[in-house]
Write a structure and sequence with these properties.
heterodimer; A: about 550 residues; mainly alpha; Cytochrome C Oxidase, Chain A; 17 helices; about 65% helix; B: about 45 residues; about 80% helix; rod-shaped; binds protoporphyrin IX containing FE; binds copper (II) ion; Cytochrome c oxidase subunit 1 (chain A); metal-binding (chain A); electron transport (chain A); Cyt_c_oxase-like_su1_dom (chain A)
Amino acid sequence: MSHAATHDHHDDHHGAPKNFFQRWVMSTNHKDIGTLYLIFALTMFFIGGSFAMGIRAELFKPGMQLMQPYFFNQLTTMHALVMIFGAIMPAFVGLGNWMIPLMVGAPDMALPRMNNLSFWILPFAFILMLSTLFMPGGGPAGGWTMYPPLALQSDSLAYVVFAVHLMGISSIMGAINIIATILNMRAPGMDLLKMPVFVWSWLITAFLLIAVMPVLAGAVTMLLTDKYFGTNFFNPGGGGDPVLYQHIFWFFGHPEVYIMILPAFGIISEVVPTFARKPIFGYKAMVFAIACIAFLSFIVWAHHMFAVGLPLGAEIFFMYATMLISVPTGVKVFNWVATMWGGSMTFETPMLFSLAFIILFTIGGFSGLMLALVPADFQYHDTYFVVAHFHYVLVTGALFAIISAAYYWMPKWTGNMYSEFWGKVHFWNSVIWVNVLFFPQHFLGLAGMPRRIPDYNVAFANFNMISSIGGFLFGATQLIFIGVLIHCAFFSKKKATDRVWEGAKGLEWTVPSPAPHHTFEVPPVINDDELAHGHVND
Amino acid sequence: MKQETTRSPVADGDDSRRRGVRRTVTVLVAIVAFFFLISFVQIVLMK
Ligand code: HEM
Ligand SMILES: [Cu+2]
């Protein structure tokens, strides 16, 4: 690896190694590794998406259409694992890699070689996990939550556990790198409370990752030893308890869902001020709200387990703790709206996706609030209402924020403007079809349709067909995104300016577009007027 | 440990930054190990 780096020293202008292998496989450059993460996430997004198309095709009509039930279960399990660990999380890590050093004025991540390792573990982990689909026993089929004893029946458990370990190691190393970068590599004068909200959101998210990924690793290790090494952690026959698995899993699982939304909050907090041409309303409150949400996310896990039969006191505690999260979340939504209030807004594609996020994520928050009510959850638990809830927060929430960020920073990455026309076509189709896809699932859930099943009562036929049509069109719409990306990177004739957006503030806009291979080798002199939050303490 | 990707005088010369990174990583790795082990302890204590 040192060869690649020494080579860099001689290359003066661009500085990127010319050799493909050296540049991409041995990369220690935060921008190249960020690009690798983003391409990987996009690939996984389409693989996970193809599983979703299979699921919606089977559910298009009642009755068994296309596949065996066991294969259907593999599709739902793999869809979730691929989207969560392969698409959403790596996309945020890619955005963090690209933008955090640029935003705090650092020459690179604090640990560039570990950065390379964090990325290159992932393709192996996912090849390992996806390969189980082609094995005689098939892939994991017990759901992404891997509850025992069901998950223990799977022949591929050992492969999946090892893949999850690899993903966990990758995330932990990525998180350590991000924290070390933010705490130690900021340019002089970039005080913590002058950092962009996106950087803050990642700092806090990285601490969540560090606390909960090891717990997931512990939980799946216990699954493995229960299946193959004769332990009885979760086996009542040997004095264990399967409900304990659920506690451990959700102690990871709930913070995990916030890992997938806090960086999204950060992105929205960058995009909205830029296109409203106003500084964010209540910067310190925004940072504090993220920290509060992160703290609360550790004491709400059992809201996923209301129906297992917890003691009444626990049900009430977890219900109120969960409802408490609405307070800091409400602060954030209020502040985004207040930022736009009286601003001179324009509606370029990143802003459109961010606006859709604010509205649609809030719908997901409200359905979450409904699920947090213990007596209501007794009815909604394990129905399509839950499926509708988490797709509003994850698709129109996390994914829309990622797409918004891609449009927002793409000109900085490629040096070219994307096609605004096709961006808007992508946006309007996405926002319409995603609602056709997921909104009817609320009704299905309220009417009692269970999740994770390949067949259903004919009473649910109409809404399922509508949902499937929305699903196919939402899936097809994402091909437009590929077109926009390729056009922007390779064919667009319209060059981006350094600032790109009229209202954009922050260090990342002071470097040329496309961002050169090395930036801030000499720490920038921080001018508070250039920063979005340079004057918070005045 | 030299950061080879950069020619930055800060990364090369500044010892405090390098020590800061090291201290941060040490603390974080300790947290990771703690949470990994606690998940087993929790199970063993609770069952
Ligand atoms: C506004 C705050 C939120 C509240 C009050 C809330 C509440 C809940 C509750 C009570 C459940 C369990 C439902 C059940 O299984 O019966 C649930 C499930 C879920 N939530 Fe949320 N939620 C919130 C925000 C989010 C966010 C921001 C995300 C992700 C970005 C998310 C992702 C999920 C997922 C993935 C599940 C389903 C997990 C599974 O069983 O597979 N939620 N939520
Ligand atoms: Cu939760």
